[in-house]
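Standup, Tuesday
Yesterday: got the pipeline producing structure tokens again.
Today: sanity-check two examples.
Blockers: none.

Example 1:
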Amino acid sequence: MDQWQIGGVRVAKVIEDQDVWLGTRLCDEMHPDNVLKEAAWLVPTFANDRGKILLSFHTLVLESAGLRILVDACVGNDKERATPLYHRKHTNFLQDLGAAGYPPESIDRVICTHLHVDHVGWNTILVDGRWVPTFPNARYLFNRREVEHWRTVPAARPHIEDSVLPVIEAGRVDYVDYGAAITSEVSIVGTPGHTPGHMAVRIASSGHQALISGDLLHHPIQCAHPEWRCKFDTDAEQGVRTRREFLRQCSEGDTLLFGSHFLTPSAGRVVPHREAFRFAI
């Protein structure tokens, strides 16, 4: 388990899974030849020597002002999915979360940066044939526009029905707007483009700052190429604009960036490089 201290906020990472992807699944330009052009700073930590990218599926738990805040709930177990990578998984995520000191009943808030399938799965678990909230004492924090959008998308119906609607129907959801303060040290940053209500998470404590990217960034190579359009963005042009501004703010504010899919070490600094940036660990 990796841990960081951001002022008075403790951050812990718990991994559900890791995988090797052909980058063109994310962006047309992220093919092996282009990845290997950045090999000097990507290989072997974030890409392999064949130009495939390395991805992590993990959650971050923040301890702030007496609250335990889990950011993004990964893929989950036992879920029926069309994508083989996500279908009927059986990982030790909950056991690992408990071993890290965070049993489900100890979580106070669950923030979903957005409602894609790999960020909501552990919102629920299967109990006696029903999907019920995994974190029984937590309030789940969603963006209302995000929920309203995905309710209208037929392809999203399976994961919305088993991982989002059950916590809404259980009365466990609070809707949060951009700029909302979760504690005096943790707040929501509006970063639309990847999805209509996509949120990043800001930590600001004792003069120290960090940002959790969500899927505004999937991989460090996007720091060098924020102009590359992500195939999973609902508004790719807005995604490019948001990504550029987000990276600029990170680079100018000495802000620690947590990449929500970045392989270990997952956190680093955004530094200016040529006409864009690099991710420095």
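Example 2:
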Amino acid sequence: MCRHLAYLGPRTPVGALLVDPPHGLVAQAREPRWQEHGSQNPDGYGVAWWATDADTPCRHRSTTCIWRDPRLSTVADHRAGAVVAAARLASPGSPVDVTGNAPFVAGSYAWSLNGIVDGWHDGVGDAVRARVTPARRAGIEGVTDGEALFALALDDLDRGARPEDAVADVIAAVDAHTTGRLNIVLSDGRHVAASARGNSLFARRVEGSCLLASEPLDDDAWERVADGTVVAGDASGLTASMRL
């Protein structure tokens, strides 16, 4: 049900996360090892990267599967100190349309959902979208759960929430209506928050960087993030963890 990753650290080619590792995002999109729902992620992908100190990330999205997109090589050449990327397996009932591809971006933030909100197209989506402020709700482009949940998080951030609290609050809002698998990544290019809720999430602890991914990208030392946990970090590594 999608694969995603987030990176903060020294400037590096985007391809060093997506293409070069033996189980980078391209490999795990095509042949996932930890994915329990679906055998591949062929319904497009997206990459957001902070190429400079500018607050607003660059982004590329495509409905072409990541291992076949001819533009991937161009994206992979960009150097960035922060990256959020995702390969998609569309949820049942959701169209394969670029508006449904994470990462979603707004201002300085990028967001990815690896999971599903149960009953989204059977009334739950309407109930969740109703919780979003009217102005922001009017800006939602597509019909997917991931984009609407991002809008909900942005409202929370506007009220002063920390990224990790915004992630936890969104999960609590979904829990008020339904069940689901809710692995989320939220980053502003300087900080990152991520949840493990029903899908795998791993962290690699290397001094001077923070790397989170649905699956280990290589055979280095990775730690699995406990299910039901939100973690937060910056370029120095993971800095906080809390239970949902």
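Quick observation on example 2: The chain has one domain: 3-243. The first strand starts at residue 3 and ends at 13.
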